[in-house]
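re: the backbone from monday

yeah here it is again, tokenized this time
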């Protein structure tokens, strides 16, 4: 999914990075795969750790407020470090480039995860960023509403042991089930 977004906004981001950070267009192009990997890892870490509400909060904020979000700051810090280590650029240049790039990407992601009412929901985020597809999220949501037990077993039956997570890596059904169960316990006050 992020590859599609990076491909669609790549030209604009490259020009913005080159202009604002004072690097060549070729250097800006070289940053895109680094940025894509860093952003993917940052969001998947949040989803895996059950912090979907943090991503939802970020996507529901305005671009002017991105810097106040800890997820944005964490991904930006990681990207600055990756640009410095992989490209040998100074921190000041890497910082400007990272902010420009991530701001554009988050704006795009926010747009594609919004529902009909213009809001980003946890269900929308999970459907875009995790191994839990929309039908699975709908089933889990139904379980929460009906206070049905067996979330671990339900997710384990639906998700195969090596479901690919947007080509970032793999998680076992047990890991996904544990994350889902923990999140549902948080939502329901320990019903699972």
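seq for it, each position gets an aa:
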């Amino acid at each position: 999914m992020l590859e599609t977004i990076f491909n669609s906004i790549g030209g604009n981001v490259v020009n913005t990075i080159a202009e604002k950070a004072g690097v060549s267009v070729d250097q800006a192009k070289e940053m895109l795969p680094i940025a894509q990997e860093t952003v993917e890892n940052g969001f998947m870490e949040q989803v895996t750790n059950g912090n979907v509400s943090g991503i939802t909060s970020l996507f529901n904020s305005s671009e002017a407020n991105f810097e106040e979000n800890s997820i944005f700051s964490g991904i930006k810090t990681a990207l600055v470090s990756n640009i410095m280590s992989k490209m040998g650029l100074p921190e000041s240049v890497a910082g400007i480039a990272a902010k420009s790039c991530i701001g554009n990407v988050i704006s795009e992601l926010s747009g594609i995860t919004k529902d009909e009412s213009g809001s980003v929901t946890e269900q929308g985020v999970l459907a875009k960023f995790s191994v839990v597809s929309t039908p699975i999220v709908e089933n889990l949501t139904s379980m929460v509403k009906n206070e049905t037990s067996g979330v671990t077993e339900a997710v384990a039956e639906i998700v195969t042991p090596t479901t690919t997570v947007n080509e970032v890596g793999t998680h076992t059904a047990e890991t996904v089930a544990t994350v889902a169960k923990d999140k549902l316990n948080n939502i329901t006050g320990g019903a699972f």
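Residues 151-171 have pLDDT under 50 and may be disordered. The chain has two domains: 2-120, 130-188.
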